[in-house]
Amino acid sequence: MKQAVAKFKKYLSPALFAVLLAAIIVGWLLFVPPIHGLADNGDFYRAINSNGMYKLHDTYLDYVAPKYGIYQYFNENHAAIFSSQPVFVKTALFLNQVFYSHKVFDIRFMGLVYYGLFLGAIYLLTKALVVSERRFRSYVIAALVVLVFGDSSFTLYFNTFFAEPEMYLMLIYAVAALLLLARHCYQRQWPLIVLYFVATSLLVTSKQQNAPLALSFMVGALGLLMLVQSKVRRLALAGLMAVLLAAGVYTYSNINSYFSDINNYHAFTHGVLLYSDQDVSQEIKKFGISEQFGLMRSEDYYTEKYTALKPSSKYVSHQLLSKYNLPWLFKYYALHPKQFEALLDVAARDFMITQVKATGDYVKAAGHKPRAQLTFFTTYSALMGAFFPRPVCLYFIASGKLHWGIWH
Amino acid sequence: MKRSVKWLLLGLCWGCLLIAFGWRSTPVAAASQRVLLVYDSKNTVANGTAKIDTVQRALTSLNLKVRTVSQNQYHKGMLTQAYAGVVTMINWPEVGLTNQTFIHDRDQFQGAKLHIGDNLTATEAQALGAQKQKVSLKQFTLKAQQASQQLPFSETMTVLTQTHANSTTFGTLATQEKDAATYAYGTVYQHNGYLPDWRNNGLSLTLAVQTMAQVFQRHMQQQPMLTITNVTPYSHLTLLAHLSQYCENHNIPFAVSTTTVAQNTTMAAYKRFTKALRNVENHNGVVYLQTPAVGNPGAYAQPQRELQNLISNELVAFAQNNVFPVGISSQGYWNQDRVYRQNFLTKTNSWLLLPDHQPTTFIHEDQQGTAVKQSFLAVSASSFNTVKSLAQVQFAAPTALTVKLPATQAKLQAVERQITGLNVTWYQPAGHLDTTLQAGAVKVSYRDGQYFLNGRPKMVNDVVKQNFKQPTYQHVVRLKGFFKVQGMILTVLFSVIFVILIGFIWLGRKIYRNKYYR
Question: CB–CB of B264 and A274 under 8 A?
Fold first, then answer.
């Protein structure tokens, strides 16, 4: 028995153990028919149309569509938004065309691209956490890494055209790179530094709302300056930081007015107008916005039923959306800290509910009801969704500790 | 002798009754009849859907129930004698009518017939007692008595010549050439009518409605009602107050078509909105409750209930603030949808039908519009800006001339100039409107300028004072106590650890630095 354990430890490091475990669990989930994923909520068109694909069936929300058509003629569709996601979609399309078909795209090739990156991320993260130890506790940590990061609520995204998998994987890579640097796991630091900047740049450019994150990653990158001694290397590092910042600025500047209008509108109707202990219509008046717009409290941009005035109308654009911006919001919340705290608490309440309930996880052929939810390997997300503490101040303390913990 | 006295008394009583009820119901609200509208094509590129919408609204304002079908949907026997009339509408002359079944049925039909647009058949021309003639590449001036308006350039138009002596014509088309021939615009002979062209506004629309009224024997002539549109709870309410004051100062009665909200009605902003509407009611104005903008209501299992709740909540909130709408204003397509019609529009007997704004969102489109006691056909007032002698123009159906509520002070002055520039005698809602709007437990009536709430007379100025109520954001959560205690314990624990950690870091750095300072 002891010999078997010794052999196991010798040939299977904790990192490889985690990779093997994750490969089996996530591989079965994504590739073995009937496959799993997330149904289209209406956003897939952004990723598929401009990358030369189209929907074969008019299925939304209820079931996962396993196949998509590939355009056989000139594709006139332009990208709806600026994003680095096409890098991954095009890679999947290329693999599909080489190994499967030129006419039909199998969503599993999308899953395959993310699956490969995911296994790499799991390897690096486990390695960063256990370093080179091969004790029992190291394998427990490896198993925990798989339990947490291989949770199906995250990996279901791989078989989709959402940009979330890219964000998820790149964040793991970025954190793993920092941890590996901090714990001196590898002799050469440059590959890890480059990995950090590549991962963060892809993350920042994956979705337009991630653009401001460039600033956060810049703060993280400041610590890297302490690692390098020579002037030239510091200059190179500063160059990489500049690239990261430029990626953020470029992504932010490419947010088209349509999307920024939607975001601004919701920041107002689901932010400024909510959780105030005063008549909010009077409060916004003090900040230069017609008090009448207070009546828009809780309204959605894409109204589901009926509304007195469409948010996409010129009147709303001229009289409301053009009258406030990010500094306006900062100022408003600075003077209404109680409301801000209440809003953060609301955000924190749903922070750990990671499984998307609005869309189905199965293909229609699997015989499940529309929008049926997968329960396989969702222990972590289910536990966190139920028991994770709610107050937002915990997040601040925890993130503060994490940050200090990494660099000290 | 006794018998003759008896008959005399009976006659007198009957006369009194006629005077008592007949006087009030001016214009006479004729019983609703059904009309079949058949069009060749929607021709959306040439704004054909808007033309169909205006024809539907015009017919509805004449108290006619309109069923609309495209020629592709028409099948044999559809045009029965149950219809009082049929309207043929040619939207795309290059295609025209190809459904021979309809053409055959129409020729056999004995009721009223109206043809709008090109491609008039020889049989139709014969029934009109006239000859048809095609005129090309002309720019016509449309004239009616002293009023006239220049029409846009037209490539081709089929006009009638040698009309029968007994036919009635509405307006004339004249070219700018010297000694050029003039042609009738609207022509009615017996129960057949013809309009060579259809426009959605201006003098041509009023003449077209006159022609329709003659064909379908509807005599509902009345002055146009000034209507301020584009009013919402988010509008510039000060400008609305200024405009109301301006209208009152110039003795102009008017109507306001406004949407409203069913939620957040305890906010000061809602109070301000309803105060502005009460101000309208106090300045010789009336309020029409406008149907809301539509999202995707069909996605819901019970859109009927949604609509019923919506109008009920809106009306309750209005009534609580002494705002009493005299009817419902809506885009025309709501009348072509069974769900909208049955669950919202027919809650009142008074409509103000606005032009459709594309795109339109249907829940259950059936194109079987109904009619109510009084339905105003909304037409942009600006389309009459170029009409000379508008005072001479007769409006054959209830018509609302609409001006948009401006968003700036500068535009307000332009609107005021426009209103006075129209120089017409306006419709007096207080003297003529007799309406009811009922939804849920609330019934609002308007009669002889007096508002009634559930049968009781109400004064607009009786305001019920209500204070702002902060909405509660309490969420029902199971194990709430557990999570609260857990959150507190963890917060304290994390905070203590955080402080200790900072202490250790500070200590560590001190030891590290001291190594070099020794």
Answer: no
β-bridge partners, B164 = none
Asked if A295 and B270 come within 8 Å (Cβ–Cβ), the reply is yes
Residues 6 or more apart whose CB falls under 8 angstroms from that of A283 comprise: A276, A294, A336
Predicted confidence band of residue B475 (pLDDT cuts 50, 70, 90): very low
CATH number of B34-216: 3.40.50.880
Locate the chain B residue with the closest alpha carbon to A279: B267
A71 and A112 inside one domain: yes
For residue B261, the chain A residues in CB contact (below 8 A) are 295, 308
The CA distances from residue B335 to B224, B331, B414, in Å, are 22, 8, 33
Total residue count of chain A as it appears in this document: 408
Q: For chain B, report the end-to-end CA distance as a whole number of angstroms.
A: 142
Task: For residue B292, list chain A residues with Cβ-Cβ distance below 8 A.
Answer: 306-308
**Residue that is last in its domain, among A254, A286, A319:** A254
- Kindly report, as residue ranges, where domains of CATH 3.20.20 are found in chain B: 224-458
**What average pLDDT does this structure show over B390-414?**
93
Q: Do A292 and B470 touch (CB under 8 A)?
A: no
A96 Cβ under 8 Å from any chain B Cβ: no
pLDDT tens per residue, range A291-336 = 999 999 989 988 878 999 999 999 999 999 999 988 999 999 999 9
Out of A275, A309, A408, closest to residue B473 by CB: A275
For residue A290, which residues of chain B lie inside 8 Å, CB to CB? 234, 236
A355 within domain boundaries:
no
Q: How far is CA A21 from CA A159, A176, A333, in A?
A: 19, 19, 46
Query: Is the confidence at residue B20, as pLDDT, over 50?
Result: no
- In angstroms, the separation between the Cα of residue B293 and the nearest Cα of chain A is 5
Write the pLDDT tens digit of every residue in B284-320.
999 999 999 998 776 666 889 999 999 999 999 999 9
- The pLDDT of residue A408: 46
Does A106 lie in the same domain as A34?
yes
C-alpha pair distances (Å), A193 with each of A177, A233, A337, A353, B257:
7, 11, 38, 32, 64
Cross-chain residue pair A408–B487, CB shorter than 8 Å: no
Q: How far apart, in whole angstroms, are the C-alpha atoms of residue B235 and residue B35?
A: 39
- As separate numbers, helices (DSSP H) first and strands (DSSP E) second, chain A gives 18, 4
**Which tokens hold the place of B517?**
């300072």
- Measure the CA–CA gap between A127 and A209, rounded to whole angstroms: 31
Specify the residue for token string 């102009």. Answer: B252
Q: Does B12 touch chain A (CB under 8 A)?
A: no
Residue A55 · residue A40 · CB < 8 Å? yes
Q: Which of A281, A307, A315 sits opposite B269 (nearest CB)?
A: A281
Boundary-marking domain end, from A289, A304, A335: A335
Q: Which residues of B touch A322 (CB under 8 A)?
A: none
Please tell me whether residue A313 adopts helix, strand or coil conformation.
coil
Contacts of B48 (CB under 8 A, 6+ apart): B39, B41, B42, B91, B92
